[in-house]
């Protein structure tokens, strides 16, 4: 295991994920700045470029912890520093698939109105210049029992509404 970042979902938008913050973390060494999802993404990006080896970022946590949002921020970082955000708008295409994925795999729980009921594996492809050229998203461990039964004050997948 490499670096571990503990993030807390503040349940509100904060100005710590803006474009200028991405540029502030881009090119920095781990530990030079405050702990941040962008610092983790930068470290993975640098190691990919330097060692020419695949990198993984595992985002884990309890329901409502902000795992999906953290993954989106990491993808935004890669698209921005890789130059692909302005060139081909791949970030927008990758992130545009998120509402569809959420409708099919997210449900209302007592703790979270938009809770993922499945795991996601997102594979981002880079070219030789380290620009994003595409992405695949796979799901696993879909909570199938929710289709036929929901606890009180919960509901099944958004797609049915």
TrEMBL record:
<dbReference type="GO" id="GO:0016020">
    <property type="term" value="C:membrane"/>
</dbReference>
<keyword id="KW-0547">Nucleotide-binding</keyword>
<feature type="domain" description="Myosin motor">
    <location>
        <begin position="1"/>
        <end position="161"/>
    </location>
</feature>
<dbReference type="InterPro" id="IPR027417">
    <property type="entry name" value="P-loop_NTPase"/>
</dbReference>
<dbReference type="Pfam" id="PF00063">
    <property type="entry name" value="Myosin_head"/>
</dbReference>
<keyword id="KW-0067">ATP-binding</keyword>
<comment type="similarity">
    <text>Belongs to the TRAFAC class myosin-kinesin ATPase superfamily. Myosin family.</text>
</comment>
<dbReference type="GO" id="GO:0016459">
    <property type="term" value="C:myosin complex"/>
</dbReference>
<keyword id="KW-0518">Myosin</keyword>
<dbReference type="GO" id="GO:0051015">
    <property type="term" value="F:actin filament binding"/>
</dbReference>
<dbReference type="GO" id="GO:0005737">
    <property type="term" value="C:cytoplasm"/>
</dbReference>
<dbReference type="GO" id="GO:0007015">
    <property type="term" value="P:actin filament organization"/>
</dbReference>
<keyword id="KW-0505">Motor protein</keyword>
<dbReference type="InterPro" id="IPR036961">
    <property type="entry name" value="Kinesin_motor_dom_sf"/>
</dbReference>
<feature type="binding site">
    <location>
        <begin position="61"/>
        <end position="68"/>
    </location>
    <ligand>
        <name>ATP</name>
    </ligand>
</feature>
<dbReference type="GO" id="GO:0000146">
    <property type="term" value="F:microfilament motor activity"/>
</dbReference>
<keyword id="KW-0009">Actin-binding</keyword>
<protein>
    <submittedName>
        <fullName>MYO5B protein</fullName>
    </submittedName>
</protein>
<dbReference type="InterPro" id="IPR001609">
    <property type="entry name" value="Myosin_head_motor_dom-like"/>
</dbReference>
<dbReference type="GO" id="GO:0005524">
    <property type="term" value="F:ATP binding"/>
</dbReference>
